[in-house]
Structures are given as structure tokens and as C-alpha cells.
Description:
Helices cover 20% and strands 36% of the residues. It is an alpha+beta fold. It folds into 2 domains: 7-104, Double Stranded RNA Binding Domain (2-Layer Sandwich), CATH 3.30.160.100; 115-177, CATH 2.40.50.140. The strands form 2 sheets. It has a 5-stranded antiparallel sheet with strand order 7-6-5-8-9, with no helix packed on it. The chain has a 4-stranded mixed sheet with strand order 1-2-3-4, covered by helices on one side.
Amino acid sequence: MTVELPLQIRSGDIPLTGEVEGYIRERSDRLRSFAEGITGCRVTIEAPINHHQKGGPYAVSINVVLPGAQLVVNRRSDANLHAAIRQAFDAVARQLEDHVRRVRGQVKAEVAPPHGRISRLFPEDGYGFITSDDNREVYFHRNSVLAPGFDSLELGQEVRYAEEAGDRGPQASTVTPVKAQR
């Protein structure tokens, strides 16, 4: 047995057809797949003041209430009413996904690029090797080195790099000196 999501639909001076109300109910029911515990959803649809023509623009506001949180989306669309409603529900669904990730502690953490030191350098041939923090050797070409450039590199210098699979093993697609050697 599923509990129906408490839903309020307000339309100001715009008459809503049964088909439009059904679409709003369908989209609000889908919100349950993004987050459990939604205690309420209010959808407000309005036409701007002095709006005398048929059709857009429409202002759609969705307010979703969860334990300890309230998500609000306001969207304005010159498109048809269905498109305005869809855009607003898509936006609130993204907010719900982000909220659930935050609550679960699954916020994307920035991963620092790998570090290493220049262990072998062949300036005349335009390449070298980095020894990674986990003692692997990573090839790089002079074209992969960012400012101040390949010619500024020295043995033992600390670098950050982006690694990818090369034809003959790991290689750095970009190499960034951490600080210049003196």
C-alpha cells in the first residue's frame, strides 16, 4: 500500500484542465522515487500580472517539504504550460537528488590529482618519467607539461599529473610543477 503524497495545486487566475492536473499529480508522485519522507508538495501556477493573451509566459513554483528541509523551485517559461511544469519538476527532482546525497554524506569530494617527483629526464628527446607516490613509474612527453614548461623541470622536482593508460603503460596527459626548484 502506497501512501499518497500530500499535494496542493494552486492556479491563480489560470483555469486548469483535468489533463493538466493529472500531469501535475503524476510528476509529483514521481518525486517519491528521489526521496523518502516527503511530507508535502505545493504547486502554484500563475500568469504574470497584465497577462491578457492565451498561452505563456507561465510562472511555476514548486515547494517540497521534507523532514528538516524545504526545497523551492521557481521557473518561468514562455513555452506552453506542460513545458513550464516539466521544467519546474525536473529542477526540483535535481534538488531532491542533491539533498539526499548531502543527507547520506555522499557529496562529491574533490579528489586531488596524483603527485610524484621527476625521476628521469631526457631533455634532448623531450620526455621523462615521474615516480608516483606509490612508487610506479609514469611516462610523460614535453607537450604534456604545463607552464612554466618542460625546460624548467629538474630531477627530484615535485609535480601533479593526470594519468591515463598509454601504449606501453601509464602516462601523464598533463604535468604541472608544484613549485619551481631553486
